[in-house]
Design brief:
Order of helices and strands: EHHHHHHHEEE
CATH class: Mainly Alpha
Shape: globular
Radius of gyration: 18 Å
Low-confidence stretches: none
CATH superfamily: Di-copper center containing domain from catechol oxidase
């Protein structure tokens, strides 16, 4: 049965509560931290050795779609009526947006140490202790907009710049790909040393705190962010129906997955993640 992923701004109080409760249930069993560890394990960059499957690579979208589905499946085993909502960060652009409410994800970290003290994921409530990628403490951290080095969430125009790309990805298939939808939406700087970030990457940097590194899954907003990234990929496919849905079509770089390859750690074919219509839809 096809289920729906909603815009977080349309969730009722009951829906918010059910989502939060399901996330907390996974945390209590240790299952949530397994997702954090998986993301850390597969956070491989251009300069690292080995296969890149999750970031700085064409499989950025299908890998995260599968990752989201695994998380969503775990949530729905707790509560079959729950799905992952999405955060349209081109619209909900301020700390006053509904997703940061006390009854949902909680708000910004305090100025002194960026510790989140509001909402269900504040460590002092005893339900959300950070055990993976621990930095300054075992509490969730955020630093909205990074006041010491200010940054804004991506605008509709900046997202449109990625959506207008007519090719999925291009050589060299990494963070330096000069064009192509994948890198324009993933958002790496156009040249090494540049401090300009775009779209997906800009959102991670705007939230800051735990969202900055490989352990970004420690912040539950990770899932809402990537649900919107997944929606953008879906819309891009609709906008460019004649474009190859995934590139490279054949193996040209042993560090990059081609269309016929499978993605670790699930051994799921890239091609299986190119269409979600039989699984879920977006509101």
């Amino acid at each position: 049965m096809v289920y729906t992923r909603q815009n977080q701004s349309t969730l009722t109080k009951a829906q918010k509560r059910r989502f939060v409760n399901a996330v907390l249930a996974l945390k209590r069993t240790g299952r949530y931290d397994e997702f954090v560890r998986t993301h850390i394990e597969f956070y491989t960059g251009d300069g690292d050795g080995g296969l890149r499957v999750a970031h700085m690579t064409p499989s950025f979208f299908p890998w995260h779609r599968k990752f989201l589905l695994e998380f969503e499946t775990a949530l729905r085993q707790v509560d079959p009526g729950v799905s992952v909502p999405y955060w349209d960060w081109t619209v909900a652009r301020t700390p006053a947006a509904s997703l940061w409410a006390e009854d949902f994800l909680g708000g910004n970290g305090r100025r002194s140490d960026h510790r989140v003290t509001t909402g269900p994921f504040a460590q002092q409530h005893g339900d959300w202790t950070v055990t993976e990628a621990v930095t300054d403490g075992d509490f969730l951290m955020r630093d909205f907009g990074r006041p010491q080095d200010p940054i804004a969430l991506p605008s509709k125009a900046e997202l449109a710049g990625a959506m207008d790309e007519s090719v999925y990805d291009k050589v060299p298939w990494n963070s330096l790909s000069p064009a192509g939808f994948r890198n324009k939406l993933e958002g790496w700087p156009s040249r090494r040393g540049d401090r300009t970030w775009y779209n997906h990457n800009r959102v991670h940097r705007w939230v800051s705190g735990h969202m900055l590194g490989a352990g970004s899954v420690n912040d539950p907003v990770f899932w809402l962010h990537h649900a919107f990234v997944d929606l953008c990929w879906s819309r891009w496919r609709q906008r460019h129906p004649r474009a190859a849905p995934y590139l490279p079509a054949e193996q040209r770089d042993e560090r990059v997955l081609a269309a016929g390859d499978t993605m670790p750690p699930w051994d799921t074919p890239v091609g299986d993640m190119l269409d979600h219509s039989s699984l879920y839809r977006y509101e």
